[in-house]
Amino acid sequence: MSKMLYEGKAKKIFSTEKPNEIIVYYKDDATALNGLKKGTIVDKGIMNNTITSFFFELLGKNGIPHHQIRKISDREALCKKVAIIPMEVVTRNIVAGGLAKKMGVEEGYVLKRPLVEFYYKNDELGDPMINADYAEAFGFATDDQVDCMKGYALKINDILKEFLLARKLQLIDFKLEFGVDEEGKVILADEITPDTSRLWDLDTGEKLDKDRFRRDLGGVEEAYREVIRRITDQ
Ligand code: UDP
User: Fold this and answer.
1) Which site from 10, 12, 128, 169 is most exposed, i.e. has the minimal number of CB atoms within 10 Å?
2) Cα–Cα nearest to 185, from 80, 71, 78
3) Ligand 1: which of 173, 176, 224 to mutate, most ligand atoms within 8 Å of CB?
């Protein structure tokens, strides 16, 4: 019998008969502004399961180890159980969101090289920004694990950026989470979706991601559907 181990903002995690495998269930719930703004994006769970499965398969083929075993239904994916490292790894190519304000530049400013940032995953504290020293000092991850996450983040950025560009999508930024598997290896976990990335149409600059929900731009479901259409050529 499977039981719910954890419920997050966008997903639920269930146990399986195997102690080292879990089921991730994708919900339609959407939150923004650190949980202050709540809503539903119709069929988001189905779309995000499809998009994450697609990207994890693509990354796996390109040598990135990840936790997903396979998609098992519309909203569910079978995954390896990992100990999640409590850090969000954000990689940026173009300035958007919080960074534009912080650095006093316009959204759309093209960075001279990709920027990797770390945040401590803690809703109560509003996910404060940290650096590699914090990770080791607070016991979140070792220096080697941080180097490993940064290396994977940059490689994932190269793979996704090129893949998306060919489909007329600009990868502005994205957030990753990593976990430690049974063997002690750092592997990619969580999701890669328009909830956790910014994707702009290459020609028009139209936003095809969760900023449509955050900023009440409308056409949220259509944007997610368009991302699926472009990445799967459907
Ligand atoms: N992001 C995320 N979860 C978070 C914070 C950010 O998935 O808790 C993603 C977000 O969707 C974007 C990138 O990380 O693709 C950078 O977000 P930013 O720090 O600019 O967040 P903002 O200040 O715009 O909320």
Assistant:
1) 128
2) 80
3) 173
Q: pTM of the full predicted structure?
A: 0.97
Name the 3-class secondary structure at 113: strand
Chain segment 78-114, per-residue pLDDT in tens: 999 999 999 999 999 999 999 999 999 999 999 999 9
Whether pLDDT at 1 is above 80: no
Are the beta carbons of 90 and 117 closer than 8 angstroms?
yes
**Nearest residue to 178 via CA among 158, 207, 204, 148:** 148
pLDDT for 17 beyond 90: yes
* Alpha-carbon gap, residue 65 to 189, rounded angstroms: 9
Ligand 1 atom index nearest CA of 98? 23
Ordered by where they begin, the domains of the chain are 4-80 (3.30.200.20), 83-219 (3.30.470.20)
Task: Note the helical H segments in 67-142.
Answer: 98-103, 132-137
Q: Is 190 in the pocket of ligand 1 (CB under 6 A)?
A: no
Confidence at residue 34, expressed as pLDDT on a 0 to 100 scale: 85
**CA 211 – ligand 1 centroid, Å:** 10
Beta bridge partners of 66: 188
